[in-house]
Amino acid sequence: MCDAWDVIPSWGERRVLQRRQKDIGPPMQTGERRKAERRQKRGIRIALTAGLAGGWLAFESDSERRRLVPIPGGWHELAETELRRLWREAEVLPHRKRRLIE
To answer: Is 3 helix (H, G, I), strand (E, B) or coil?
Structure first.
């Protein structure tokens, strides 16, 4: 038996590149943009690859984990045979290290 759920990251780093445009020198005005942190939420942000930024379908059983990118539309309404097909197409993920409390 396998569990499946969609993962839509909201905590990931959305910026993929260091700068949005080519370095053309300092801007004409050096206002608040360079002085203050503009992010509304603080915390750890994980850099996601472009493919993962849109989310993925996660599969997990006692023996393995898999991930399918992108999330197929209407996946939660599919028959079990179609979910098994998606599971076979999904990328096998490495085993997680067990935490001390497990």
So the answer is: strand
How would you label 15-44 residue by residue, b for 16+ Cβ within 10 Å and e otherwise? eeeeeeeeeeeeeeeeeeeeeeeeeeeeee
Distance (Å, whole) CA 75 – CA 33: 42
Do 11 and 45 contact (CB within 8 A), yes or no?
A: yes
Mapping DSSP to helix (H, G, I), strand (E, B) and coil, where does residue 21 land?
coil
Instruction: Assess contact for 70 and 55: CB atoms under 8 A.
Output: yes
Q: How many CB atoms lie within 10 A of CB 56?
A: 22
pLDDT digits over 49-78, tens only?
A: 777 878 899 999 988 999 999 999 999 999
- The domain locations on the chain are 3-14+33-93
Q: 24-56: per-residue pLDDT in tens? A: 555 555 555 555 555 566 666 666 677 787 889
